[in-house]
Records
---
Amino acid sequence: MTAASGSAGSAGSSGSADGGVRIGHLVTSGTFSLDGSTWEVDNNVWLVGDDREVYVIDAAHDAEAIVAAVGGRRLLGVVCTHGHDDHIDAAPEVADRTGAPVLLHPDDRVLWEMRHPDRRPDGTLAEGDTLTVGGTELRVLHTPGHSPGAVCLYAAGLGTVFSGDTLFRGGPGATGRSYSSFPVIIDSIRERLLTLPPETVVRTGHGDSTTVGDEAPHLEEWIARGH
């Protein structure tokens, strides 16, 4: 598969000009399958790093494009925000080509094994874990609901949170399929994400970014509509 589109940019006060930590972005296209149905999807792939090292967040669909975006940098890890196949389908190939570990919350192993029954993740993610790249910390927030082991990554120094499929512009991630729960995702969003500074940029697993401040006023609307 090929990348549908791609872009790279900086975040926070550091940019590519001085070699500081920045955020890269690819959009890749493929499919998502669960509960006997398959959908065409576009996924956001995020890269956080400097000129020397980088993390990939959600290796979706296109290993070739992701490895090219990593370039000559050391890939510290392939971080999976959750185990749905559209977010992990390219993870083993990216890991094998770069020597980087695949990291997943253990509560999503059941989903991982649906796609990769013969390949285990290399490491685990848990609430409060910290990943460091170029001096910037990414703090793991366990945010179940869309899936049992869903996580977000909060980079306070960059003023952003990578929300996977937990929070989007306009509401929570989908909870109408196996291994999901609407009350649980609401609790995760309320307790883990809407408590972040309102200016925090929410970089999502699909579609456009938003901010905590833009989404927080609508929590009761989401609860009332039930999705």
Note: The chain has a mean pLDDT of 93.
---
Amino acid sequence: MDIIGVITGLSPHVAIALVLVILAAGAALPIYSLYRQKGGALVIRKRQFLAFFLLFGWFVAVMGLTTFSRGANYGGWFNFRLFSGYVNAWNNWSLVEAQLIVFNILMFTPLGFLLPLLSRKLRRIGPALLISLAVTLLIELFQMLSRRGIFELDDIFHNTLGSVAGCFIITAVLSCAEKGKLLYKPVMRALALPLLLALLFTGAAIVYHTQEFGNMPLIPAVPQNMQGVVVESATAFPGAASPVPIYRNSRVRNLDYMRQMAALLENSFGLRRASGVRIDGFNRLIEYRDGGGAQYYYNFSLTDGSWSLNHEGDSGRELSLRETEEQSAFFEKWLAENGLLPAGAVFTLQNGDTLRWDAPFQDGWPQADYLLGQIMLTPSATAEIPATLWYFIAQNDFVRMAPVVSPAQAYEKVLAGRFKMYNDLQPGDRIEITACELQYVYDTKGYYLPAYYFEGTLNGEPWSCEVPGR
């Protein structure tokens, strides 16, 4: 999620929190005034009053964003693996995952920032730390028990860290203001966390860019818990494997190529941008309008370099034989003129309404450059712009031959739970493996690397997983 997505998601909860703060403060002020008129001894300063209701608003906004904005779709899940978020961000080399870590820290910074304004006693790190830890534990427990989230140790760590950082910042500000000069120790404590994060992310970037290959998104941050899980295979897996080719696709995660294709669509079909580039996981999205105001969406996938153009609300139309010939000739010429149609591409009409061009068939994994993929285009029912255009022609350039682990070694990774699954395995689950074959997947630098694909059943239902072969 990009900054626009964060602001969009947070805005309604901030608005609700603001309304509740105004109502609560409006009710509390006359009550406190009456209390003081009747001789009440408790004095609440304006700063304390403001800090209390800001904390109330912060808590409402955080609960709305982290809990009540979700459905009860989680089955009491928990993740006690500390720093698994960092491992996931590294494996995917994901800006979004890194932003999530920083956002979880920043989200609790207001708590630590406001606590010392309530009382001088809360300027000490001990009380502020205990309160912060208690609040984040309460939220995580509520998420788990209400099935609206996952109890994650990473979240508790980052939230508490953010609150402590906020406490250090406001303490440094107050201390320097009271002394009338810059104090070294409080300022250094306030700067410690930003400097540590900058060092961490800079170090990760240096390591990443100096290594030859990218990272493998299919490696799980947290392995499956295989205790009580039965894994069986009727196949004996070989204990040795021959070297295999390694390829590279320069379009993977290539934002220059993304912009080049976006400009081509704009110029070819007269589209005008209705939004900037939006981030949606590993996709980059741009919204367009044509001359009549119809919506189109351009979607570029970082993971494999494919892209698509879709007309909102236009499902296309079935083509007659004459229309098929006309449309295929027109778009084939357009693809060829713009260097998008590979030589020897095979044309077919699919489902009566979709034009399809496949890259020339390649048997096996050659020790040479080769093309892979297809182009699928559905002509519009109302406009000359396609209703849908999906482009995935991968230029896989041969790099070199490289050794791989054997199928038996890959199977050991399955037994150890080193594979990804959407829903975690549970004790009593039964996996029966029926096949294993070598396939290829892209890493985060666009290298096309070998991976073993295991297929079978989980409790009688179709199941599969992938483990790296390199």
Note: The longest strand covers residues 388-402.
---
Amino acid sequence: MATVDVKNIKSETVSQIELADVIFSITPDAGVLHEMVRMQLACKRAGTASVKHRSDVKGSGKKLFRQKGTGRARRGDIKDPLLRGGGSIFGPDPKSYSYKMPKKKKRLALKMALSAKLQENELIVLNEFELDQIKTKKFVDVLNAFNIKNALIVTDKTNETLELSSRNVPDVKVMRFEGLNVYDILKHRCLILLEPSVKAIEGRLLV
């Protein structure tokens, strides 16, 4: 098992923790990670782009003028796509871009993302991240102690003080271990895990 130092918010080593090899010591596969991120981004797409087709435009269905003998182009009703205010021919309609991956593959991708952070020395384990009050400056001071400006912080339970103190800091996100995902791990340069959340993550992925 890989052994990692557990630090406090002053960047001082207070203990050590062993990380499960089946989660934190897997060789990352760029193809699997790419596929997972692509799926997550596809599921985020709104898919709400829409236009009015000929049948959706408000207007009379009466033929504008007779078919022949006028010397003009043959017209149907005023909703003709070639006329101003007419319907759109090939415009987009609302659709869902989301799709699913096998559960085992999703779990493997998450393990690979965690392993990549450990192998690149971008994984930090804290014993706790408790602030006595909601204060952005105090939160930033903790990040400065680690020389970090871009980080994903994973907690084991709801920590409103921490979440509110960090919400105005750019490139920083706080989430509970249940919401941990490949996209957010790879998007942020540093991954900070609270010590209790490590066991929670291992319990989730060792099923």
Note: The chain has a mean pLDDT of 94.
